[in-house]
Amino acid sequence: MFIALSTFTIANDMAAQVKEAFVNRPHLVDSAPGFVRMEVLSPQDNPAEIWLLTYWTDEDSYSVWYKNHMRESHQDVPKGLKLVPKSTKVRFFEHVGA
Ligand code: HEM
Question: Could you give all domains of the chain from N- to C-terminal order, each with its CATH number?
């Protein structure tokens, strides 16, 4: 299994709207080949931070989705959202155990 962790920090007062957008997310990714599941987390010590974990059967499935469908999955990102500069990071993981 392959996991992508995407993190970013919201700079303006739109954290609640961003979280709402994740609750109502478009679910387009759910039917992407190789998609397993996702989790959206926000740390208690910084509620403006979002941690988005997507689980895939393999890295190629993630890459194909990222290249071709990332844009349409983000069409409803709240307008006016500002991120802390350079706060956006994507890291990749192997799944070691559960
Ligand atoms: C710059 C940083 C990013 C921001 C601000 C952001 C924001 C959001 C928001 C607000 C949503 C909720 C759905 C919507 O409104 O469309 C969403 C969905 C999603 N994002 Fe991001 N995102 C970012 C980067 C990424 C990255 C790098 C990935 C890939 C690892 C990613 C993967 C996803 C996925 C899989 C969904 C769910 C889409 C669906 O349900 O089809 N995002 N994102």
Answer: 2-94 (3.30.70.100)
